[in-house]
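User: Predict the full complex structure for these chains.
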Amino acid sequence: MITMERRDLILSLLKEKDVVTVKRICEETKASESTIRRDLTDLENKQIIKRVHGGGASLLKKKREEPTLIEKTTKNQREKNKIAEKAASFIEEGDSLYLDAGSSTMEIIPFLKDKSVVVVTNGIPHVQLLIEYDIETYVIAGKVKRGTAALIGTKAVESIKEFRFDKCFLGGINGIHAELGLTTPDPEEASVKRTAMLQSQITYVLADPSKFGEVSFANVSEVSDVDIITTVGIAEEHVTELSKLTNIEVIAL
Amino acid sequence: MITMERRDLILSLLKEKDVVTVKRICEETKASESTIRRDLTDLENKQIIKRVHGGGASLLKKKREEPTLIEKTTKNQREKNKIAEKAASFIEEGDSLYLDAGSSTMEIIPFLKDKSVVVVTNGIPHVQLLIEYDIETYVIAGKVKRGTAALIGTKAVESIKEFRFDKCFLGGINGIHAELGLTTPDPEEASVKRTAMLQSQITYVLADPSKFGEVSFANVSEVSDVDIITTVGIAEEHVTELSKLTNIEVIAL
DNA sequence: CTGAATATGATTGACTTTGACTGAAAATGG
DNA sequence: CCATTTTCAGTCAAAGTCAATCATATTCAG
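Assistant: Here is the predicted structure of the four-chain assembly.
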């Protein structure tokens, strides 16, 4: 049985019954436990299901055709997910984390499962997910920005200052340039990001290859203040140039 | 049986009958006493139920709607909507409002359309709706409470103090009693509500008739500090008694 | 056809859940 | 008020479940 066929079968089993044991799936698919477990972890990382001890519980989102849902996991999605996975690998037990608003950082959340970390965020959509994964969560104060549902403004900046982080994960950086540093379109968001960085021991920037060499409107910080996580597709010249200034992780897909 | 299945079963048992013995749950689930007790403590920690000696009493809100429960919620829904409409009628152009977490106050949001108000809230689910209705919104800081997705704790209390409100709308008041005042199950939430009231010119409490004459665990304030909005179904004695102390709006359905 | 990348299944040791047992705490009934 | 019964939290060993590793099998490109 081909991988995708098998996964579709798992999903339909989950649609019938919210919770299905691994053993049961093995019987249905005639695949080994190992394989099923792999499928389940993958499906969870793609945020299609939520796993529980003893079986996997279907969760996230509607019942629109599963085949398309799997294939719709675009290259971009996969890219973001890989970056998030790498980012999560730096996280240790007991860490206090800041998750910046935006979809890139949201992808990190499934990897935090059972890690006993404390998360502070300014992203409203993050909160629901964090609750689902049962992670201790704090939200900073701030004005809600339309579109991204991020908390920004003076209140946000002041509010962040009341926390200290072991690690800070930033997304939404639209420009990464060796001399001109990290930039983003909205100055209000830039302030929030900058303040979060100042409160953190170490900051990771999650960025796709298209952002390198670009410059946006509002400056956030120097390149040397952060570690960068991205995927292949970035020009060699950028890698060598940036790696003189800081750590840059380039992930194969 | 998988943990999650078992817990769902416990919750549905609790929905039928407010109080169920451990022994009874054991029979239903075919699990040992130890396991059930563990489930109960966990569910309590997750703030989904409240335990009592001899069995556990269901508390905080819905989990999965049964057909019967759907009808119940639609009836409740209409009630809540009417209350919200009345509450909204007090709101004037340019007001700054505090919307407490909880479904009652969320119903107010659609009535705010095109009213040019500023809203501050501690309810995460509120934010998404407020964005949709294009309302200027601020979120207070705080720790995320599982289940209700409300922001609570010291940070929340401190954060509220940085705002001033024309009107404050409270939901989630489980007890309204002429002498013993307004009460709610969670002391942390009570502090937040109390602080919000202090920052506001006037406070409205949204409550359904079942809450009158009841007393819950944590005190929020005196009855005289708030205006009450409810629907018919409340006993006459309560109305006359309370109307000596404050304004009480009783809405026909 | 060969080698690299990927998928699979068996095995292991770590971790989680479970149920029986224990003594403490709470309700019950004189 | 005390003694009895019931209910409860904590501990422990056993069973179940899981992630990690490895060796094998399959796929695909060159």
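Residues 21-22, 33-34, 37, 41, 53-54 of chain B lie near DNA strand D (CB under 10 Å from a C1').
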